[in-house]
């Protein structure tokens, strides 16, 4: 298993607290951002192997963030997560994310195994992200 530097971008405080608890025990280093604008500032200061981003957020949402990740850090893999929003279903949100360049998508709510499966899908080498 390769240890990954992960940026989690989500406006949900509970999810930002939960994801490090899911990912750090398997060796990943996790940094969190509240929205896309904060994530862009972090991407300008640090390289990440993986960004896990919510799609529907205030300030700058995942739909705006994904192209900025691809421009700033083209090698960074992207996993989009969504539970839908006011105007779009979860399926539509995740389809948009894939179209914009997300390497994998995970529907909220998800458990640890579903998240790790999504991360593994984002990387071309099987077993890279989890054991």
Overview of this protein structure:
The chain is α/β, with parallel strands linked by helices. It has helices at 13-23, 36-45, 62-72, 90-100, 112-122, and strands at residues 5-9, 29-33, 50-54, 77-82, 104-107. The protein has a five-stranded parallel sheet with strand order 2-1-3-4-5, with helices on both faces. Helix 1 (13-23) links the parallel strand 1 (5-9) and strand 2 (29-33). It is globular, with a radius of gyration of 13 Å.
Largest sheet: 5 strands, parallel
Based on CA inertia axes, which overall geometry fits?
globular
Q: How far apart, in Å, are the first and last alpha carbons? A: 6 Å
Number of strands: 5
Number of helices: 5
- Overall pLDDT metric: 90
Q: Which regions contain 5 or more consecutive residues with pLDDT less than 50?
A: 127-131
> What's the SSE pattern?
EHEHEHEHEH
Output the radius of gyration: 13 Å
User: How much helical structure, as a percent, in the residues?
Assistant: 40-55%
């Amino acid at each position: 298993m390769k240890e990954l530097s992960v940026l989690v971008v989500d406006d949900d405080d509970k999810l930002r607290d939960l994801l490090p608890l899911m990912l750090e025990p398997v060796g990943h280093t996790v940094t969190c951002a509240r929205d896309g604008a904060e994530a862009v500032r972090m991407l300008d200061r640090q390289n990440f192997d993986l960004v896990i981003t919510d799609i529907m957020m205030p300030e700058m949402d995942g739909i705006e963030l994904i192209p900025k990740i691809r421009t700033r850090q083209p090698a960074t893999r992207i996993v989009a997560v969504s539970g839908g929003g006011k105007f779009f279903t979860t399926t539509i949100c995740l389809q948009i994310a894939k179209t914009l360049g997300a390497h994998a998508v995970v529907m909220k709510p998800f458990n640890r195994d579903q998240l790790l499966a999504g991360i593994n899908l984002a990387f071309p080498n099987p077993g890279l992200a989890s054991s």
